[in-house]
From TrEMBL:
This is Gfo/Idh/MocA family oxidoreductase. The lineage of its organism: Bacteria, Bacillati, Actinomycetota, Actinomycetes, Micrococcales. Keywords: NAD, Oxidoreductase. Residues 2-122 form the Gfo/Idh/MocA-like oxidoreductase N-terminal domain. Pfam families: GFO_IDH_MocA, GFO_IDH_MocA_C3. The keyword Oxidoreductase applies. Residues 137-270 form the GFO/IDH/MocA-like oxidoreductase domain. The keyword NAD applies. It comes from Ornithinimicrobium cryptoxanthini.
Length: 370
């Protein structure tokens, strides 16, 4: 399998690390050739390719997706390019991995779902937190009924890299490139976790958005921020679970804090990405002994752990991308489905757009279409 990664910055580096290591830690998958790294600036992409271990570089993704030596196209660009690149790559018969969010609008996501259904290649959406062992374990425990029927959930994803009003403009702060602000960036992960952990969809949402810093220094002077800095929502699922969602990139002091809490009729689960090897389980029972139990999710019996280190040797954020690459390669070899699917991306995007619609209508409860 020859791989091309489009984009060589943050996610381009994280995915390069995964492609480099995947066959070493998951020996059941076929080794991949790190064929081509793609970026717009020839000099910078050459340097990145040398640092990250790529055989070659290119500056035009259109030329790369047509090549016979490329089997997998991995899209690590800003959101406005996801649909265009992925649609072209699927049409060219390639297997396609797209970073989250799937695209910047429901309409683009629908086009991608249709294209993936008709394509020869496999399609995977990079909701990498599905490969955090503790979250995969949480899904298993919910499915086994260990906390009873889930009634209530809390999700938050808080960062603070935009707390400083002088932090400069980036593509993430422009609607035309990012689609939305923290909602699409971090809210997409949180909504997908709710869908993934419960195995059901959000059908209704009400929301509020805020842009606390309306202007920021741009490359050509002051620029208007056209997306949200923070968002809040109440989410309702098909079975009647009610969840609160809070996302922010101006939450001073919080670095990368994705927290998930599920409350069931006979127990609860709690997860914090900043302590990603731990899952806190509380099960109702004997009042003297039924307090919260912190499970160290580092045993070979836990999801994904067999591939890595002996029990108790903790994993990190980067392992999720390697495990994701392994699942993708296995699905390609077996010609079997792999999650997160493009449908999962569409389902998440519908919730995000419903939150925006609700905000515009003063917080009105809005159908998501899921
Ligand atoms: N899964 C996660 O945890 C996670 C974390 C961060 C970002 N992301 C997602 O990954 C994607 C990329 O984000 P990032 O943080 O890597 O952004 P980034 O700004 O660090 O990198 C974007 C890259 O895209 C390249 N690019 C832009 N236009 C291009 C074009 N026309 N042709 C080729 N390359 C082009 C840029 O040169 C750059 O290398 C986004 O969709 C983002 O939401 C996911």
């Amino acid at each position: 399998m020859g791989v091309a990664v489009i984009g060589y910055s943050f996610m381009g580096r994280a995915h390069s690390n995964a492609w480099r290591n995947v066959a070493a830690f998951y020996p059941d998958v076929a080794p991949v050739r790190m064929q081509t790294l793609v970026g717009r600036d020839g000099t910078r992409v050459e340097q990145a390719a040398a640092d990250l271990g790529w055989a070659g570089v290119a500056t035009d993704w259109r030329e790369v997706i047509e090549r016979d030596d490329i089997d997998i196209v991995d899209v690590c660009t800003p959101g406005h390019l996801h649909a265009e690149v992925a649609l072209a790559a699927l049409a060219a018969g390639k297997h396609v991995l797209v970073e989250k969010p799937l695209a910047n609008s429901v309409a683009e996501c629908e086009a991608l779902v249709a294209a993936a259904a008709a394509a020869r290649g496999r399609a995977l959406l990079g909701f990498n937190y599905r490969r955090v062992p503790a979250l995969a374990l949480a899904r298993e425990l919910v499915g086994e009924g260990r906390i009873g029927t889930v009634q209530q959930a809390r999700l938050s994803y808080l960062q603070d890299w935009l707390s400083d009003p002088q932090a400069p403009m980036t593509w993430r702060l422009r609607r035309e490139s990012a689609g939305s602000g923290v909602l699409g960036d971090l809210g997409s992960h949180a909504v997908d976790q709710l869908h993934y952990l419960l195995g059901e969809h959000v059908t209704h949402a009400s929301g509020t958005l805020r842009t606390f810093v309306p202007e920021r220094p741009g490359p050509h002077g002051t620029e208007t921020v056209t997306v949200d800095d923070a968002a809040w929502a109440t989410l309702h699922t098909d079975s009647g679970v009610v969840a609160s969602l809070e996302v922010s990139r101006v939450a001073t002091g919080r670095k990368n804090a994705l927290t998930v809490e599920l409350f069931g009729t006979s127990g609860s689960l709690r997860f914090d990405l900043e302590r990603l090897n731990e899952l806190v389980l509380t099960q109702a029972g004997d009042a003297r002994t039924s307090g919260p139990t912190t499970i160290m999710v580092t045993e070979p019996e836990h999801p994904y752990l067999k591939a890595w280190w002996p029990a108790g040797h903790v994993l990190g954020w980067d392992h999720t991308f390697t495990s994701q690459a392994a699942d993708f390669l296995r699905a390609i070899a077996a010609d079997e489905p792999v999650h997160a699917t493009f449908e999962d991306g569409l389902a998440a995007q519908r919730v995000l757009e419903a939150i925006e619609t609700s905000h515009a209508a003063g917080g009105l409860l809005t159908e998501t279409g899921n």
